[in-house]
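Lab manual, section 2.4: Encoding a predicted structure.

Procedure: take the sequence of the chain (161 residues), apply the prediction step described in section 2.3, and record the output as structure tokens. A sample record is shown.
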Amino acid sequence: MSLNKIILIGNVGRDPEVRYFDNGRAVANFPMATSERGYTMANGTVVPERTEWHNIVVRNDRVAFVEKWVKKGSAVYIEGKLRTRNYDDQAGVKHYITEIYADRVEFWNFGVRREDGGTPETTSATQQSPGQNQGVQYAQSTPTVAPSVPLETNESDDLPF
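Recorded output:
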């Protein structure tokens, strides 16, 4: 048995790029940054903040939500699968691209609480049952907005979706 599941919480680095196809399907792509906070060790060694960039791919019914609501700087929660694809460029060099195919996209509120002491409601591109996704409360009060980094694109990409 195996499992391919990714969970990310971070910030959108660029407004999503949405493409519509003749068959009625759509796909949205955007970069997302996740960061690990820097710290100083007991011996005085400083470990800097580390930011990782992820290529997010959203398909099917979740594209409308992403197109309407997700913008550069949005704090989002992503659940999905890790996929790697490759292509050969004009010089014959093989390139590999790793992407997160999102099954779930939600807004994420870092440490924000409602006046009644509960956690905030989340807006989501998936159906949820009552009481599901109460969120985790972090000590961090505001998200860090990462700079925009362009994704590698292949203009002759003939993906079957």
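Check your result against the sample. The first helix runs from residue 62 to 69.
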